[in-house]
Design brief:
heterodimer; A: Immunoglobulin-like; seven-stranded mixed sheet; B: Immunoglobulin-like
């Protein structure tokens, strides 16, 4: 299994509070992604990173920010959580060359915003 | 708007039956992946198809990429209860960005 961990695995928070989710990899892969998964929508890309301090928006980036100060860590921040951000969040990594089309996923973080 | 349309959304069959899941788009992808996801876990890659018309087999699973690289199918022969799960297709574009379909939830009854 690819070395990807996510923390926390579960979180319950209240509307308006800030939340930070962490993704940590031990594979030294260049690309890292944050997705959210909701019933009927599959996985939707929030933000991704193509290197340290290099990030870009995905299709559902509003209300989210990210940071990547080290190769191994990719943080997702909800500045002021809303109930519509209740979801399961997955981090993924992919490499270069022959491994570019292969994404490895973390175990997910279940976030509930009350 | 879903860039990748998967069908059917739900499938409940008996052990031993065959099934096909479809993944369709109006966009061209550089490659297409199929994943399987079990409850409480992240998706796990089954296969990547790259060339138009490509067919790949993984035991009882057969994957096909359309000639125009816009669609794909997953066929399972003689399904087993262990095949139960959520099947997701994902198209790669701009090299390292991916769009996912909404998934097909498969239940194989013993």
């Amino acid at each position: 299994d690819a070395g990807i961990t996510q923390s926390p695995r579960h979180k319950v928070t209240e509307t308006g509070t800030p939340v930070t989710l962490r993704c940590h990899q031990t594979e030294n892969h260049r690309y890292m992604y944050w997705y959210r998964q909701d019933p009927g929508h599959g996985l939707r890309l929030i933000h991704y990173s193509y290197g340290v301090k290099d990030t870009d928006k995905g299709e559902v980036s509003d209300g989210y920010s990210v940071s990547r100060s080290k190769t191994e860590d990719f943080l997702l921040t909800l500045e002021s959580a809303t109930s519509s951000q209740t979801s399961v969040y997955f981090c993924a990594i992919s490499g270069l060359g022959a491994g570019a089309d292969t994404q490895y996923f973390g175990p997910g973080t279940r976030l509930t915003v009350l | 708007t879903q860039l990748l349309e998967q069908s059917p959304q739900f499938l409940s069959i008996q052990e031993g039956e065959n099934l096909t899941v479809y993944c369709n788009s109006s966009s061209v992808f550089s490659s297409l992946q199929w994943y399987r996801q079990e409850p409480g876990e992240g998706p796990v890659l089954l296969v990547t198809v790259v060339t138009g018309g490509e067919v790949k087999k993984l035991k009882r699973l057969t994957f096909q990429f359309g000639d125009a690289r816009k669609d794909s199918s997953l066929h399972i022969t003689a399904a087993l209860p262990g095949d139960t799960g959520l099947y997701l297709c994902a198209g790669a574009y701009n090299f390292n960005k991916f769009y996912f379909g909404s998934g097909t939830k498969l239940n194989v009854k013993p």
